[in-house]
Amino acid sequence: MLLISILAVFVYLGLWLVGSPPPGITTLIILSFFGIGLNSFGIGILGEYIGQIYIETKLRPKYIIQEVYQGSAEAELPRVNHRKIYFQNVNSGKMYRF
Question: Between residues 80 and 23, which one has the greater pLDDT?
Fold first, then answer.
Protein backbone atom coordinates (compact mmCIF):
# COMPACT_ATOMS: atom_id res chain seq x y z
CA MET A 1 0.00 0.00 0.00
CA LEU A 2 2.86 2.35 0.80
CA LEU A 3 4.49 1.65 -2.56
CA ILE A 4 1.23 2.39 -4.35
CA SER A 5 0.93 5.68 -2.45
CA ILE A 6 4.48 6.69 -3.35
CA LEU A 7 3.85 5.77 -6.98
CA ALA A 8 0.61 7.80 -6.96
CA VAL A 9 2.49 10.86 -5.66
CA PHE A 10 4.97 10.65 -8.52
CA VAL A 11 2.20 10.16 -11.08
CA TYR A 12 0.25 13.14 -9.69
CA LEU A 13 3.37 15.34 -9.69
CA GLY A 14 4.07 14.35 -13.27
CA LEU A 15 0.53 15.18 -14.32
CA TRP A 16 0.65 18.48 -12.43
CA LEU A 17 3.88 19.51 -14.13
CA VAL A 18 2.43 18.67 -17.56
CA GLY A 19 -0.67 20.69 -16.69
CA SER A 20 -3.47 18.13 -16.84
CA PRO A 21 -4.14 16.66 -13.38
CA PRO A 22 -7.50 14.85 -13.14
CA PRO A 23 -10.28 17.10 -11.81
CA GLY A 24 -11.05 16.59 -8.12
CA ILE A 25 -7.86 14.69 -7.31
CA THR A 26 -6.65 17.42 -4.94
CA THR A 27 -9.91 17.26 -3.00
CA LEU A 28 -9.63 13.48 -2.73
CA ILE A 29 -6.05 13.70 -1.49
CA ILE A 30 -6.92 16.32 1.14
CA LEU A 31 -9.93 14.30 2.34
CA SER A 32 -7.78 11.16 2.48
CA PHE A 33 -5.16 12.92 4.59
CA PHE A 34 -7.88 14.27 6.88
CA GLY A 35 -9.35 10.80 7.32
CA ILE A 36 -5.93 9.27 8.00
CA GLY A 37 -5.21 11.98 10.57
CA LEU A 38 -8.56 11.42 12.27
CA ASN A 39 -7.92 7.66 12.41
CA SER A 40 -4.44 8.21 13.83
CA PHE A 41 -5.84 10.52 16.51
CA GLY A 42 -8.49 7.95 17.49
CA ILE A 43 -5.96 5.12 17.61
CA GLY A 44 -3.71 7.27 19.82
CA ILE A 45 -6.53 7.90 22.31
CA LEU A 46 -7.43 4.21 22.27
CA GLY A 47 -3.77 3.32 22.90
CA GLU A 48 -3.59 5.64 25.91
CA TYR A 49 -6.76 4.09 27.31
CA ILE A 50 -5.50 0.53 26.83
CA GLY A 51 -2.13 1.52 28.33
CA GLN A 52 -3.85 2.79 31.50
CA ILE A 53 -5.85 -0.45 31.71
CA TYR A 54 -2.61 -2.44 31.38
CA ILE A 55 -0.93 -0.47 34.17
CA GLU A 56 -3.94 -1.02 36.45
CA THR A 57 -4.14 -4.76 35.76
CA LYS A 58 -0.52 -5.42 36.75
CA LEU A 59 -1.69 -5.06 40.37
CA ARG A 60 1.51 -3.42 41.51
CA PRO A 61 1.40 -1.72 44.89
CA LYS A 62 1.14 2.05 45.05
CA TYR A 63 4.05 2.09 47.51
CA ILE A 64 6.84 -0.24 48.64
CA ILE A 65 7.40 -1.01 52.32
CA GLN A 66 11.05 -0.61 53.21
CA GLU A 67 11.02 -1.96 56.77
CA VAL A 68 8.49 -3.54 59.13
CA TYR A 69 8.76 -2.83 62.86
CA GLN A 70 7.06 -4.93 65.52
CA GLY A 71 5.33 -2.85 68.17
CA SER A 72 2.41 -2.83 70.51
CA ALA A 73 -0.99 -1.40 69.65
CA GLU A 74 -0.57 1.25 72.38
CA ALA A 75 2.69 2.59 70.90
CA GLU A 76 2.66 6.20 69.84
CA LEU A 77 3.15 6.94 66.16
CA PRO A 78 6.54 8.46 65.43
CA ARG A 79 6.62 11.74 63.53
CA VAL A 80 8.15 12.36 60.15
CA ASN A 81 11.91 11.98 60.52
CA HIS A 82 14.25 13.02 57.70
CA ARG A 83 11.63 12.47 55.02
CA LYS A 84 10.82 8.99 56.32
CA ILE A 85 7.22 8.49 57.34
CA TYR A 86 6.16 5.90 59.90
CA PHE A 87 2.72 4.29 60.11
CA GLN A 88 1.34 1.80 62.58
CA ASN A 89 -1.25 -0.82 61.72
CA VAL A 90 -4.00 -0.57 64.32
CA ASN A 91 -4.95 -4.26 64.12
CA SER A 92 -1.52 -5.91 64.22
CA GLY A 93 0.56 -3.19 65.87
CA LYS A 94 3.26 -3.43 63.18
CA MET A 95 5.20 -0.28 62.35
CA TYR A 96 5.81 0.58 58.69
CA ARG A 97 8.46 3.02 57.46
CA PHE A 98 8.21 4.55 53.98
Answer: 23
